[in-house]
Amino acid sequence: MKIIDIGANLTDPVFRGSYRGKQVHEDDMGRILDRARAAGVVGMMVTGGNANESAQAIKLSHEHASLFATVGCHPTRTSEIEKYPGGASAYFAKLRQLIDANRDKVVAIGECGLDYDRLHFSSKEVQNRHFGRHFELTEATGLPLFLHNRNTGGDFVRIIRENRHRFTDGVVHSFTGSEDELRSFLELGLYIGINGCSLKTEDNLAVARLVPLDRLMLETDCPYCEIRPTHASSKLLPQPHDAAGTAEADGDGWCMPDSKRKEKWCGDCMVKSRNEPCTIRQVVQVMARLHGISEQELADRAFTNTCEVFFSSVKHDF
C-alpha cells in the first residue's frame, strides 16, 4: 500500500519533543517517520503556514527524500503580512524566492484561503486581500494550490470561481463542509482532502461518502485532527480482538501503534493527542468502509490523484 499524506505540519515543535516551549522528551522525528513508512506512507507534504514555516518545511524536505513542502501564508497568519518590512510585495517576493530556489521540493502554493472561525487572528478584509496574492504565485510558478476554508459564507467559493482560470489544480484540505459545499468545490474541479476532522460526526460521514474517488486525497493535518473514540468514525475502525485491547491488524499486518502521555514518552510509542502521519491508515480504513471498497483500492485511488496533481513534475521515489 502506498499513501501520500498531503498535509503534515511537521515543523511544529511537538515533533521535536517541545511543548509550549518546554522540552518534555527527546527529538523523535526519526521514529515518527519510521512509523509512517511502516504504515505505507511513502511521501508527505509538509505544510508551510507562513514564510518562516515554509522555509522550515523546505529545509526539512531536503533532509528526508520522502518529504516535500508547500509555500504560502495561512489565512489566520495573514496579519503578519501587514507588518512585514516592505509590506505585502516584499513578503510575497520572499515566498517566490523560496519557491524558485527549491523547485525540486516545493509542490504547492499554500496553505492559503479563508478562515472566518478565527477572525481574532486576522480580519476578513486582511484575509481576503492576501488570499488574492496567492493566485499571483500560482500563475507565476504553475504550482497547484493547497487550500483552507472555514465558515466563509460563500466568499471562498466566490473567490475561487473568479480566479479559477489562474491555476491548474487545487485541493481543499481538511474538508468538513456540507454536501452543497462539496458539490460547489467539485464543480470548480477541486480535489477534496480528508482527515480525522473530516470524519467527526454522522453528518460528516454522510458527506465524506459522497466524495468521488477520482477527487479524493488523504491527510492527517498532524499534530491535529486525529480520529478520537468520541468521533462517529471510530466505530468504522477495526475493533479490539482481545482483552488486552490490541488493535486488529489489517491485511498487510499493520496495526495502530500504542500511545503514551508525553510525560511517559518512550521511543516505540506515539504521544497521546499528538497526531502523526502513520494514523493516516485510520483515515484509509474509514473511507474504504464508507465507499464499500478495499483499503488497498481506496489508497490506490487517492495515491494516483495526489501524484497527478502534486508530483508530476518533481523527482520522487514513489
UniProtKB/TrEMBL annotation:
Keywords, comma-separated and alphabetical: Hydrolase, Metal-binding, Nuclease
Protein origin, superkingdom: Eukaryota
Pfam families in alphabetical order: TatD_DNase (PF01026)
GO cellular-component term (any): cytosol
Keyword Transferase applies: no
A GO molecular-function descriptor: metal ion binding
Binding site for a divalent metal cation 1: E111, D221
Name used for this protein in its record: Uncharacterized protein
Annotated organism of origin: Coemansia asiatica
Taxonomy of the source species: Eukaryota, Fungi, Fungi incertae sedis, Zoopagomycota, Kickxellomycotina
